[in-house]
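Record format v2
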Amino acid sequence: MPPRIQMRDIRLLDQPFLPAMLIGPFTQANPGLGGVCTFVGEVRHDAKEQGSVEALELTHYEPLTLPGMHALADRAFERFDLMGLLMVHRTGMMHPGQPIVCVSAAALHRRDALGAVDFCMDHLKSAAWFWKREKRAKENGESKWHWIEPREQDAADLARWQS
Amino acid sequence: MSGVITVVLLGKLADLAGAPSLQLPAPLDWAGLQAALPEALAGALGDPRNRVALNGALLADKAALHAGEGDEIALLPPVSGG
């Protein structure tokens, strides 16, 4: 069987984006696909009790972050039978409701598309080179920045794929 | 005149340093880097969860650091979760 041409679009964006503007062309670029699965993550507002999120800032380290995303895409192509993979991540300052990440996978069969998106999202959230801090409103009306620390759930999410 | 090394600080390590990057005189090894950094930052470097990269490549062993003129050292705290 001849090797199937694989389409990949891996990007960091420092400005707001519209997921539909990415997903349409991505789907068009994979003619003959059997299924396409897309996940879009947005900045959460969170509950008032914790102090509403006013802004989220994502820092990355150029020499590691984008190469790391390409390495993750390599692993997704090895693990799943994919035709194409789109992985776009924001950096910089964001506000609640704005898209922060978009992952889309095209495949002949749905399980590969669904699995690849799940796989990429777990790794982007827990193992990619991003540092996040959020600005939350305090009860006295002031706002304060907090760094977001790794959570136990992130390690559990990654462990799902270690078999 | 000897050259400089750029030290890039990510995440909360930038807060400890009070700046996103520092310039230090070359050359630097691991002990030299710790001695040259502000005390709060030098203390944090001992935490095994904080990683070090030299010119964009992660070091498997931080103590093996040897940086010269024009090199870039990055100090990387654990990445944030969801």
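Residues 66 and 80 of chain B are 28 Å apart (CA to CA).
The two ends of chain B are 46 Å apart (CA to CA).
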